[in-house]
Design a protein that fits this description.
CATH superfamily: Alpha/Beta hydrolase fold, catalytic domain
Shape: globular
Oligomer: single chain
CATH class: Alpha Beta
Number of strands: 6
Distance between the termini: 17 Å
Structural class: alpha/beta
CATH topology: Rossmann fold
Strand order of the largest sheet: 2-1-3-4-5-6
Number of helices: 12
Radius of gyration: 17 Å
Helix content: 40-55%
Largest sheet: 6 strands, parallel
Length: about 250
């Protein structure tokens, strides 16, 4: 079983081209929607980084039970961060993992939006400014999201998602990681891979290079692609994943 975990402000639609490129059939993969991202937030769910990590572990347990074996885990953006955390906490559930365009790195201090969303009042004001759907779509495309994907994702960026984003980024201090999320990286399963769009304006390539070097991981750099390289270069990503899984 392959589990795909999207990021922010995405939904599982992110993975559609990759699933096609991999030739996957129903029952071979799972792409759950994070609570608050194209689906309601369950009662009592706090939308913190630890709550999302616990949610993902639950999804992995279900997938491993359904498939009868550990899963191949693939995560992008916040999905990558959650994938790393879940793999550290439950390596028994992981056959392999691959992250794209986000890693847990104590030296990375967060992109501008992440820092703003982590700040009370200023974060709420920034969210008020992106209620206009056309403005959001233009901003996402300017940031590197393929236009076809932006048209699919923007309708889901509602009040629920905006509130979930604020809570998530505040729990992560605007993507400034420390403590167990960093310390527990020593527990990462060895069978890992990093895939990176070299033109990412949110998490620059040196972050990926530093992470891959520190943990002795293969790093595939996709030149000319940005933060959503996993979507815009689905064929290339599928090739990398197939080689990764065959090791």
């Amino acid at each position: 079983m392959i589990v795909f975990v999207h990021g922010v402000p995405d939904t599982p639609a992110l993975w559609d081209p990759l699933i096609v490129a991999l030739g996957l059939k129903p029952g071979e993969w799972l792409a759950p929607a994070m609570p608050g991202f194209g689906r309601p937030v369950p009662a009592g769910f706090t939308c913190t980084k630890d709550a999302y990590a616990a949610w993902l572990i639950g999804e992995l347990e279900t997938a491993a039970t359904t498939g009868g074996r550990p899963v191949h885990l693939v995560g992008h953006d916040w999905g990558a961060l959650l994938a790393l955390r879940a793999a550290c906490l439950r390596p028994d559930l992981i056959a392999s993992w691959c992250v794209t365009n986000a890693v847990i790195d104590p030296e990375y201090r967060g992109h501008q939006n992440a820092r703003i969303w982590a700040m009370p009042v200023l974060g709420e004001l920034s969210m008020l400014a992106i209620r206009n759907k056309r403005r959001i779509e233009r901003a996402l495309v300017a940031g590197g999201m393929p236009a076809s994907l932006a048209k699919r994702e923007v309708p889901h960026i509602n009040k629920t998602m905006r509130q979930s984003i604020l809570k998530l980024y505040r729990s992560a201090d605007g993507l400034r990681f420390s403590g167990p999320w960093v310390d527990d990286l020593t527990k990462l399963p060895r069978h890992g891979q990093v895939f990176w769009g070299a033109s990412d304006i949110f998490v620059q390539l040196p972050v990926a290079e530093r992470f891959a070097s520190e943990w002795t991981l293969p790093l595939h750099i996709e030149n000319g692609a940005g933060h959503w390289a996993c979507h815009e270069r689905a064929d290339a990503f599928a090739s990398v994943l197939k080689t990764h899984w065959a090791r």
